[in-house]
Amino acid sequence: MRKGPTWFNLTSITLGLAFLYLPIVILVVYSFNASRLVTVWGGWSTRWYAALLEDEALREAALTSLGIALVSASAATVLGTLAALALTRLGRFRGRLPFSAMIYAPLVMPEVITGLSLLLLFVAVDFNRGFWTVTIGHATLTMCFVAVVVQARLIDFDRSLEEAAMDLGCPPARTFLTVTLPLIAPAVAAGFLLAFSLSLDDLVIASFTTGPGATTLPIRIYSDVRLGVKPEINAVCTIMIAVVAVAMIAASLLTRRSANGSSAAPMP
Amino acid sequence: MRRAFAPWTDPGTKPLVRFEAVSKRFGGVTAVDRVSLDIYPGEFFALLGPSGCGKTTLLRMLAGFERPDEGRILLAGEDIAAVPPYRRPVNMMFQNYALFPHLTVEGNIAFGLKQEGMAKPEMAARVAEMLDLVQLEGLGHRKPAQLSGGQRQRVALARALAKHPKMLLLDEPLAALDKKLRAETQFELIDLQARIGTTFVVVTHDQEEAMTMAHRIGVMNQGHLVQVAPPSEVYEQPSSRWVAGFIGDVNLIEGRVVSATPQETVVTALDGTRLRLSQGADAAAGATAWVALRPEKIRIATERPGDTAENCVGGRVVDIGYLGDVSTYKVRVTDGAVMKATVANATRLVERTIGWDDEVWLSWTPGAGVVLTS
Amino acid sequence: MIGGNSGHRTLGDRLVVLVPYLWLALFFLVPFLIVFRISLSQTAIAQPPYTPVLDLAAGFEGLREFVAGLSFDSYATLASDWLYVSSYLKSLQIAAIATALLLLIGYPIAYGISRLPARTQAILVMLVVLPFWTSFLIRVYAWVNILQRDGLLNDALIALRIVDEPVTWLATDTAVYIGLVYSYLPFMVLPLYATLQKMDDALLEAAADLGCPPWRAFWRVTLPLSLPGVGAGALLCFIPIVGEFVIPDLLGGSQALMIGQTLWTEFFSNRDWPVASAVAVVLLCLLLAPIVAYQHTQMREIERRG
Lengths: 268, 374, 306
What we know:
The structure holds three protein chains of three kinds. By secondary structure, chain A is an all-alpha fold. Chain A is 75% helix and 0% strand. Chain A has eleven helices and no strands. Chain A starts with 6 loop residues before the first helix and ends in a 10-residue tail after the last helix. Chain B is an alpha+beta fold. Chain B has helices spanning 55-63, 105-116, 120-133, 149-161, 179-196, 207-213, 231-236, 241-246, and strands at residues 17-26, 29-39, 44-48, 70-75, 78-79, 90-93, 167-171, 199-204, 216-221, 224-229, 251-260, 265-269, 274-277, 288-293, 299-301, 312-322, 326-333, 338-344, 359-363, 369-372. In chain B, the strands form four sheets. Chain B has a six-stranded mixed sheet with strand order 6-7-8-3-9-10, with helices on both faces. Chain B has a five-stranded antiparallel sheet with strand order 13-12-11-14-20. The longest helix of chain B has 18 residues, at 179-196. Chain B is elongated and about 75 Å long. In chain B, 38% of the residues are buried. Chain C has a single domain (81-305), classed as MetI-like (MetI-like fold, Orthogonal Bundle). Chain C is 75% helix and 1% strand. Chain C has helices at 11-39, 59-69, 73-80, 82-114, 118-133, 136-147, 152-159, 173-197, 201-209, 214-225, 227-242, 246-251, 259-269, 273-305; strands at 42-43, 50-51. In chain C, strand 1 (42-43) and strand 2 form a beta hairpin.
C-alpha cells in the first residue's frame, strides 16, 4: 500500500491539470461566445457552429482528414503490430538493431525532417502528391507509435499461453490468431486509435506531402489561424475535442479490461 | 511406495524416450551437460534437483521448446530434434497452468482436439471423458478466472491429457498448491497415471513429492544427471555425498577404509571410531571414504551400550528439536563434529529421559549406513 | 514466429520482420539518402527545382555529369551565414531550457500521481494524456487566444492589479516556452510516472527505518532510481523540440527563428530545396547522438523484460 500523497503532491497535480485543461476549457467556452471578440463576452450562442456547417472548405478538409486518418491508421496498425511481434518474439535476429533503430527514430525525429524527406522521395519517383502521399507519410510515422503500444502489451503477455497452444498442436501462425491476438486486441485497438488521432492532428507532414485537392483539416485551420483568431475555429476545436475525448475514454476502458491486472493508459 | 514395476531391469524392454549425451548452453552457462537417460513406457519418472540444475531445460527440450546443442533425443526410436512442439505426440502441463483466459473450461480442453480436426461429436465425448477423469463435471462452461487454484490445475491436466499423448510432461505441478491439497493431489496423480498408463515425466524440487509419486527419480545437479534410481535406492544408496545431503538429512563421517569385501567394509573415522558396515564398497584399503548415516537410523541412549568397539560414539547433547511426532537431537561428538539423531516420540514429552547437556551414546547397526567414495 | 529459442524459423517469421522492415526502409531510410543527395544540388528554376538530375538513360556519361554537378555549396551557405548558425544554436538552447522546465514541472506531477491509490492513478494518467489526444494545433492556438494583447492573461493580470498595462506576450521567447511546456508535458510526465510507479515502497520504508527523513530519502533513494525515466522523458522531449515548427511559428517572434521555421521558410517561401535539405541533414547529424541514445534506452528495456 503506497504511503499517501503529501500536500505538495496534491497541489502539483491540481496545478498541473489546471494548466493542461485551462486553454481547452477557454476554447470550449468561447466557442459558444455570441461576440466575435475574445475580449468581450456576448452571451451564449451556437452561431459559430452554424457558421461551420456553411463553411464548405472546412467541411471538405474535415472529410479528407478523416479519410486519410482511417486508411493510414489501418495500415499503421497492421505494420506496427508486425513490427512489435518482430521485436519481442523473434529473439536476436540478424538486422535487429537497425530494425529497432528504424522503429524508435521516427518517434523523436522532428517532423520537418520526415516531412521533407518523404516529399523529396515522392518527387524523385515522380509520384503524384495528394491523398495517397499524405496517407503513406502518416502510416510511416504512426506505425512506430502502434509498435510501441503493442510491444508494451506483448512484453507483459504470458508467453506460456503461446507455448501451451503450440504444445497442443497449434502451429505458430494459428497460435497468433487464436490465442495471442484476441488477448492483445485491446492494445491493438488502442494503437489504432492512437494512429488515428495522430493522423487527424498532423500538420507538418501533411503540409509537405500534400497535393492539390487533398487539403487536410489542420492545414486548413493553420492557414485560417495565421490570418487571425476566428471564432469558427473554436467551434471546430470543441467538436474535435469532444470526439477525441469519447474515443479516448473508450480506448482506456478497452485496455483496462484486457490486460490482466495492468491498468496503465496507452502511451501517446 | 510404488508397487512392483521395473521395466528398466528387463533388458528386453525398449525405452520410450532416450537422451543421448544431450547438452544445452545458454550464453556462457551450460544448463544441461551431456545427459544420457532412458525413460520407459508407463513409467512415472521424476526429475529432481535444486533450482538451476537443468531439470526444467531437459523437460522443455522434450516438449520441443528448446533445441539441444549436442546429442540426440529419441522418442520411440526416432530423433525428434527437428520436430516442432506442435507436431510432437507429447503434451505438457505448465507450472502456471497457462489456461487460455478467453476460452471456457471446455474450450481449453478441446483446444488440442480442434487442432487435430476432430469431429464435433467425438470432441464433445472426449471433453466429457476428461472432465470426468479429473472430477470437474458440470464446470465445463466456466472460464478459468471463475475457478479455484485446485480446479484450474485439474483443467490444465485434463487439457494436456485430452489428446491421449504418449507422454505427459509436468512442470512443478504441485508448486502452486497449499500443503494439504498437495498431499491429496499427489495420490490422485499416482492413481491417474496407474489407470491410464501414460508415461509421466515430472520436474520438481520437492523431494517428498518425488519420493512419493515416482517409480524412478533422476537427480540432477548443475546440469549433470547424478543418479537415476527408484526412491528407496536414492535414499538408502545415494551415489555421492551431494545426493545423500540433498535428499533428507544425513550424517557424513569422514574416514579411511581399513578393509573392503563385497559383504563388509570397515572404516576408521578421523577421530578413531571404528565403523563396520554390512555392505561392500568400491574402495581400496587406505582410501578416503565417507560413511553416510541417516538420523533416524541412529540410536541414542544415556547408558553406555554393551559393545562400544565399533559403530558407537559418545557425545554431549547441544540441541533438541521437538517436531511433534519425532524429536531431533544434535550431539557434539568426541572430535567436535555435530551429529544428528532422530527418534520417534514414543512417549510423551514429560517422560523424556534425555535433556540438554546430557552425556549420551550414539550407536547404529552395521546395516544402517552406506559407504560413499565421492 | 514464437519459437525464438527453439530455432524453428518459419516463412511466417521472415514475413513478420520483412514487411515492416521493407516499408520503413523504403519510406523512412531511403528518403534520407534522397535528402542528402538534394543537399548536394543547386537550385534551379525547373521542375523539379534542383539540378543536376540523374538521367539514367544517359548511361555512364550521364552519371559522370551528375557527379560533377554535385557540390557542397548549400553547406557552405549554412556555414557562412550567421542566420543559420544562430538558428541552430537558438533551437538547441530553447530545447534545453524547455526540457529543464518540463522536468521541473513534470516531475512533481508524475511523483504526485504515483503516490495515489492505484485506481486514482489510472484516472489521473488518463486525464494527463487526454489533452494530448485533442488536436495539438488547436491547443497551441488556444494559447494564442490567451496570450494576445487583449487576451485573457492580460485581462486577468490587470484585474488582479499585477500590471497596469497589457503586456506583450506573443512573439516572445516566453510564449514559445509556455507553448512548448504545455504541449510536451504528457511526454515528460508519462515516462517519469512509469518509472516512479514501479518503484518498490519497501525501499522508502527501509530508508526511514535506517533514520532517513522523507525529503532526504527522496534525494538519496527515489531520485536516483527514477533517473532512467528522467532520461527517457528528457530525450523524448528534447529531440523533437529542437526541430519544432508549429509552436514557434504561432507563438514566437520573427527574429531568432528556430531551425524548424528556418527549414520551412527555405522550402516553402524561398523554394530553395538544396539549402532546405542541407539544413535537414545538419539537423539530423546534430540529433543523431541523442536519437541513438534514446533508441538504446528503449531496447535495453525490452531486453530486460522481454
